[in-house]
Amino acid sequence: MKVMKSIILSSKLLFLAASTLVISSVSCGGSTGDKKTQDTTAITATAPKASISSILTEKQFNDLFPQRDKFYTYAAFIKAANELGQVKVKISRRAVSVYQFIRTNKKNGKDSVARQDADWNEEWAKKKPDSVFTVDYGDFCTASAADVNKKELAAFFAQIAHETRHGMNGSYTDGLMLIHEDNTSNVYVSDSDEYPAVKGKKYYGRGPMQLSYNGNYGFASNIIFGNSKILLNTPELVEQDAVIAFKAAIYFWMTPETHKPSAHDVMTGKWQPTANDKANGRTTPGFGMTINIVNGDVECGKGDNFGMTDRIGFYQFFLKKLGITDVNCACSCATMKPYKY
């Protein structure tokens, strides 16, 4: 993303890769998703989990990011986590590339269709059920014991710090300094039936995770707003509104892709390697797997390299600052093969 500098250089590889769930899925037909935002059956409202503010104070946040741009504030981060925490999304797939997103507002208990591909109700698609999973965004750094939640938070902060750093190597004090990537002339448009680019708009890397490409802006917008067109039409919101910027980063952290798990599941131990994972050196949940998820094509399976070791350095720095340790840290991805699509 830096995940854009790194993931824009990384994430151009990665956030586009992250879009395999989206971009690779759009070739089966046009979207009716934003036209179908009607409420479906209401469910019982869910009480929110504890706020991240219970494990992170404003003083700690400021201490972790002393050189941050004033755009990034503790209040914006906590508000983003709390508001997105009221969202749960059930993602269903048929015939490999036909999707439906049911977005639940946990505050009022109502469901709505945030996306439904044109072929969803075709008989051939109905005969080919594929996968169903639910992402509860309220689980971000709140779903486990306090030490596990803090490790997840340290890992998340390490990734966004590396992606937005702009200072001295090895200081680990220069995270969240960049709001967007340096070269804003980059357009980052790719073909997408579901999330078509808007003429004249640029989808270069923005925010803590340096969100890039129209497909990723549309997908993030589906999750955050229940409407893909908001960020497709106004991608600059990610560099103008810090709450939206942090929500986009949390969306990326929490959402699995077609071929790989979410960073959240990896850090909380929910993910366990498949036979294919084991054959490719992806054997242990831990920080190294989050690097593979964020920027594996560039930094994993290549031995020691600056990008990987810098992320690890940030993680270890933040662990210490938060008063915890990761004794059995599976921090490196040097021998892991990156995920392929």
Short description:
This protein is α+β, with helices and mostly antiparallel strands and 341 residues long.
Describe the structure.
Pfam families: Glyco_hydro_19. It comes from Mucilaginibacter ginsenosidivorax. This is Glycoside hydrolase family 19 catalytic domain-containing protein. With 341 residues, this protein is an alpha+beta fold. It has a single domain, classed as Lysozyme (Orthogonal Bundle), CATH 1.10.530.10. The protein is 36% helix and 11% strand. It has 13 helices and five strands. The protein has a four-stranded antiparallel sheet with strand order 4-3-2-5, with helices on one face. Strand 2 and strand 3 form a beta hairpin. Helix 12 runs antiparallel to helix 13. It starts with a strand and ends in a 20-residue tail after the last helix.
Record the SSE blueprint.
Blueprint: E1 2-8, H1 11-18, H2 58-64, H3 74-84, E2 87-94, E3 98-105, E4 110-116, H4 123-126, E5 129-136, H5 146-163, H6 214-225, H7 229-233, H8 237-240, H9 242-254, H10 263-268, H11 275-279, H12 287-299, H13 306-321
Antiparallel strand pairs: 2-3, 2-5, 3-4
Strand order of the largest sheet: 4-3-2-5
The arrangement of helices and strands along the chain is: EHHHEEEHEHHHHHHHHH
| CATH fold-level assignment | Lysozyme
Q: What is Rg?
A: 19 Å
CATH architecture: Orthogonal Bundle
Number of domains: 1
Largest sheet: 4 strands, antiparallel
Helix/sheet category:
alpha+beta
Give average pLDDT, whole number.
87
Choose one word for the global shape.
globular
SS summary, helix count: 13
The N- to C-terminal Cα distance equals 18 Å
Which spans have pLDDT < 50 for at least 5 consecutive residues?
1-43
DSSP strand tally: 5
The CATH first-level class comes to Mainly Alpha
Pfam families: Glyco_hydro_19 (PF00182)
InterPro entries: Glyco_hydro_19, Glyco_hydro_19_cat, Lysozyme-like_dom_sf
Organism: Mucilaginibacter ginsenosidivorax
GO molecular function, one term: chitinase activity
